[in-house]
Design goal:
mainly beta, single chain, about 180 residues, 10 strands
Length: about 180
C-alpha cells in the first residue's frame, strides 16, 4: 500500500456504498471526499453523507455478500485488545455502534475524523476512517499499553538498588 491512492470502500448513511481509490491525505483539510471509482471516474461527496471509509485489502468478489462489501463482521471487541492505543466506542448518527483502537496522538483532537483499527484485524478491513460529522457519541473505554511504559520510565528514574551484602563480606567469600 505504498501508492498515492489506497483501496477503500465508502459507506454512506443511505446504506449505499462505493468502492474505489482514495488519496492518502483525503480527510485532513478537504471539504469533500474524492474517490476514483473502479470505472475510472472521479466521484466527490460531502462528508455529511459519509458514514465511514474502510481501507480494505481487496474489493468484493462476485458472489459475496453485496450488503457487506467491507466484510466487517465484528464491530466490537470480544475481549480487551492487546495492541497499544485508545480503545474507543462510537455511536454513529444512524445509531450504529463501532469500536476500534485509535492512536494516542494529536489526531484525536485536531483531525477531521478518527482513524481506527477494527476489532478483527484479519478481516478485509484494515483501518476505518470515521469523519467527525458521523459521530454522535464518542467514549474512551480504556488506554491500552500505557502502564508498561510508565513502569519502565519509573525504573529508569529511580535510585540504584542497594547492595544486600557489604563489599567486604562479598570479597571475603570469593577468596
Amino acid at each position: 500500500m505504498a501508492s498515492g491512492r489506497k483501496p477503500v470502500i465508502v459507506r454512506k448513511f443511505s446504506r449505499d456504498w462505493l468502492a474505489g481509490y482514495a488519496g492518502a491525505e483525503f480527510g485532513q483539510q478537504t471539504l469533500e471526499l474524492e474517490v476514483l471509482d473502479l470505472s475510472g471516474k472521479v466521484v466527490r461527496m460531502d462528508w455529511e453523507q459519509v458514514k465511514w471509509v474502510c481501507y480494505v485489502r481487496e474489493f468484493a468478489i462476485a458472489g459475496q455478500d453485496p450488503g457487506n462489501p467491507e466484510r466487517l463482521l465484528r464491530k466490537s471487541f470480544a475481549v480487551r485488545p492487546r495492541t497499544p492505543g485508545l480503545w474507543m466506542r462510537l455511536k454513529l448518527m444512524d445509531g450504529d455502534d463501532l469500536e476500534g483502537l485509535a492512536a494516542n496522538d494529536r489526531t484525536l483532537v485536531e483531525g477531521a475524523g478518527l482513524l481506527l483499527t477494527p476489532p478483527d484485524t484479519r478481516s478485509n478491513t484494515q483501518r476505518i476512517y470515521v469523519p467527525r460529522t458521523a459521530i454522535q457519541v464518542l467514549e474512551v473505554v480504556s488506554l491500552i499499553g500505557a502502564a508498561g511504559r510508565k513502569r519502565a520510565e519509573a525504573g529508569k528514574r529511580g535510585e540504584e538498588q542497594p547492595d544486600l551484602f557489604s563489599r567486604e563480606i562479598e570479597n571475603g567469600w570469593r577468596n
